[in-house]
Amino acid sequence: MTATPTRPARATWSDDDVEAFRELAHTFLAKECAPNEQRWGDQQHIDREVWTKAGELGLLCPSIPTEYGGGGGTFALEAALIEEQTRALAPSLGTSVHSTIVAHYINAYGTEEQKQRWLPKLASGEYVGAVAMTEPGTGSDLQSIKTKAIRTGDEYVIDGSKTFISNGFHANLIVTVAKTDPDNTAKGISLVVVETDELDGFSRGRVLKKIGQHGQDTAELFFDGVRVPATNVLGTDEGQGFAQLMQQLPQERLIIAVGAVAAVEVTLARTLEYTKERQAFGKSIFNFQNTRFKLAEVATTAKIARVFIDDCIAKHIRGELDIPTASMAKWWTTQMQCDVADECLQFFGGYGYMAEYPISRMYTDARIQKIYGGTNEIMKEIISRFL
Q: Which CATH class is domain 130-238?
């Protein structure tokens, strides 16, 4: 693909295979997703068959090894996909949770039997993956979760509730954060994989209404005496869950930042197009000095953010991205995403407040970026510990 204001020139972390994957993703998103975003927003979830179509094309689990059904690539493929989702204005397919987070928990910590059992189903789209961390009374403080998974013979019995769960409406494989030792804090946490199909005691609550990302299903989940095999604890031992979560969070935060930078670029490109066409007082809005200066600032932010995020991606692919840098990327790029969306919406005037204009969706979709994956305040706390 040629470079445009929306799509910069090929990054150093990319290659021909990544760009071919990007083209495939672009075509799929433009055909299967973007035209349906309004309808999906109204129904608060995507159509289930879209997951299967994505799996058939190899768009799911692209950085999972081929022996488990994945694409066998690097994080570069995950980054290319989230960039194309952002550029297509098609955010509802929750691949970042499914492929970049859930599948990688299993690939990193699962036994060989667990990987063979679950990863091919995630890669094909037969299973939709979710991770259940947040609870009604617990957000960033994961050590204080109340959901319990108590071993009874060859099973674990799970009791508790989760909320704000992305992919929660469709998910039939849920990596559930639970206390296997309720008397302990971090060392009492384990990751228990729950396969939900026809599972007694498991239920879904509401698909939650949000101010943005309306088509991305976000649900409540309830576990009432749910029984799963003891072999569903991720790995071989209890009590490893908190460490497993902490080790994977940098990748989760990086993928959020990748989407944020792409959103800044798309917002800038859409606003340039509009301001050069829209007339006021006999000339284009772009020709007012205030417009030019503000958009010059946005263009500078977009350039700095792109250079920073490309460096972070390259480091992550080499295994060199550290925790504080990932935290910096997450908080700063998402703050810039929100700031840019606010600045640019202003140039659209009243039209910017109308739901049919993409800038309004960019504005509302942006706000959650500063909250999930760890709030930006938590990011700054993490960074400060390394100073």
A: mainly beta
Choice among 195, 238, 252, 265 that is catalytic: 252
DSSP 239: T
d(CA 146, CA 350): 46
CA distance 126 to 182: 34
pLDDT digits (tens, 9 = 90+) for 44-70: 999 999 999 999 999 999 999 999 999
Taking only the tens place, the pLDDT of each residue in 348-363 is 999 999 998 999 999 9
Bridge partners of 161, per DSSP, are 222
Q: Does domain 16-127 have CATH number 3.80.10.10?
A: no
R_g of the chain computed on alpha carbons: 21
> Is 238 designated active site?
no
3-state secondary structure of 75: helix
131's tokens: 């991770």
What pLDDT does 9 receive?
A: 75
Looking at residue 302, its pLDDT comes to: 97
Domain definitions of the chain by residue range: 16-127, 130-238, 243-384
- Given this model, what pLDDT does residue 84 score? 97
Q: Could you say which residues of the chain have pLDDT below 70?
A: 1-8, 139
Tokens of 77: 């493929």
CATH fit for domain 243-384, picks 1.20.140.10, 1.10.10.10, 3.40.50.1000, 3.90.1140.10: 1.20.140.10
